[in-house]
Amino acid sequence: xxxxxxxxxxxxxxxxxxxxxxxxxxxxxxxxxxxxxxxxxxxxxxxxxxxxxxxxxxxxxxxxxxxxxxxxxxxxxxxxxxxxxxxxxxxxxxxxxxxxxxxxxxxxxxxxxxxxxxxxxxxxxxxxxxxxxxxxxxxxxxxxxxxxxxxxxxxxxxxxxxxxxxxxxxxxxxxxxxxxxxxxxxxxxxxxxxxxxxxxxxxxxxxxxxxxxxxxxxxxxxxxxxxxxxxxxxxxxxxxxxxxxxxxxxxxxxxxxxxxxxxxxxxxxxxxxxxxxxxxxxxxxxxxxxxxxxxxxxxxxxxxxxxxxxxxxxxxxxxxxxxxxxxxxx
Amino acid sequence: xxxxxxxxxxxxxxxxxxxxxxxxxxxxxxxxxxxxxxxxxxxxxxxxxxxxxxxxxxxxxxxxxxxxxxxxxxxxxxxxxxxxxxxxxxxxxxxxxxxxxxxxxxxxxxxxxxxxxxxxxxxxxxxxxxxxxxxxxxxxxxxxxxxxxxxxxxxxxxxxxxxxxxxxxxxxxxxxxxxxxxxxxxxxxxxxxxxxxxxxxxxxxxxxxxxxxxxxxxxxxxxxxxxxxxxxxxxxxxxxxxxxxxxxxxxxxxxxxxxxxxxxxxxxxxxxxxxxxxxxxxxxxxxxxxxxxxxxxxxxxxxxxxxxxxxxxxxxxxxxxxxxxxxxxx
Lengths: 330, 330
What we know:
2 copies of one chain form a homodimer.
Chain A (H helix, E strand, L loop, with lengths): L33 E6 L3 E7 L5 E8 L8 H18 L7 E6 L2 E3 L4 E4 L6 E3 L1 H9 L3 E5 H12 L8 E6 L3 E7 L2 E3 L27 H5 L1 H12 L5 H10 L3 H24 L4 E5 L7 H14 L7 E4 L6 H13 L1
Parallel strand pairs in A: 1-4, 4-8, 9-12, 12-13
Antiparallel strand pairs in A: 1-2, 2-3, 5-6, 6-7, 9-10, 10-11
Helix pairs in contact in A: 1-2, 3-9, 5-6, 5-7, 6-7, 7-8
């Protein structure tokens, strides 16, 4: 490609910050072919799913950057990505598109209501994408779509009432009630932006949000602020804590306490059968899951404790959810 | 009556601790006649609703006291109360019974799973009541039944997704999702027993429960502990705070902060359209509602704030909910 339009210039596939390649995508099962896009503040995952449910051309490309509202450059980029996918796989004829984005999403109205790192307010993303791509578009919130994929294909498959929690750079959540996502007009599930402490101030404007204390991003930032050392992510802080670094231990301990408080609130009020935890921090395994199980049981009394299970679809749950949603409108 | 069996000896109607007579019961509307019982740890409210939905013989009588499981004495007492209601109103022929109790309730299985002040564990209250009373019995949790009455007849009538919060001696809650109570096997809605602080230890066994900090009972107890003065209820503590009593102001302020934290959690995670607040503390009016509205808005950012509205059915919501449930099984 020699075009200089930044919205149309698609770099090569990128890998995770951690250096891992994209995880293999679990198949969707048979159904109509669809295009799927999982848009984040940093990158876009895209793929073409065929009639067997196999993903083709899966890659991760940077989300185009402009000041302010990124709607226009994003829609243009989706058009280019779609054209490339279709050109590379002419035998697969997609019938619909699934598009999922972060922030506050009104899926019914097709609006990106608000996304702090994408700059839009009440942006009619569904209709704009449909015009640009010439196909019906299913539009949803990224983590709600991911929870739907975990419900149909992954860690939540056995639970009608579950919470899916993604702990990575931020913390996002989604509720499954009676087997389906509970949305509340797009406002439900903001577990990352529920208060658990008096501070620090969160980029969202509130104070003491769970995300500002206990996300993988916050754990790394807090360790840097406390010691001047730039850790290699939250994983490194957890390893330092285990090796006897007191500052790391204090930060990891307070993050676990904050996560426990949020889980205790969820348990008392919603009483989900399961909490499915994904995102980068979930790779901490027993250091996370065993600690949370133990602390949650100690924090509550007569309550019915949820099972805490790892998400199974890892970084691809949002993309799979987008594809599942696309098949609903095809 | 000259019988000496304590379970069968029914004292006269009692009045509220505050001296108020029982509030007039709003009519249910037309339907089959039913008996309704709202059982609490202290007293039982009972009434016979006729085909017009008018309550007859409404009264509040003490819950019989025995050590341990109170199932047997309760069921016997319900039999006596039912017989008296039917004898006093021979023209009204009830077709079913509504029975609501506190604690953890498995409405589907008809079980009182747990109630700290009534001593039972997995007690088959529905079937026992049905045998004793010779009628089909609808069985439910008291505050969920109250939320159902508020949904059909009261403050939640305009809201599909709402939380009903009763702040009195304790704090109990119930969730309405998609217009119907959300139960999670009886474990949902325990807002009073969700952690908001590191202490004090709650009678439920957990620590820092909202109920232990911010219920009307806790506010009065905490003022007594801080000053040695026995206040005339939470209302008195609030009045003392307004009059410049620093200890009262500190306690009331911390109670409002704790309630705000719980409301902020509900808003972020469930995003209800409304929170309907009843119970003794709700009579504080603006001192409660205006403060909570202001503090909740200050505590959050992009979130969709619920409207905070007073419950309309006051102390009779549980009884009305029991009667509504009874009509469903008649």
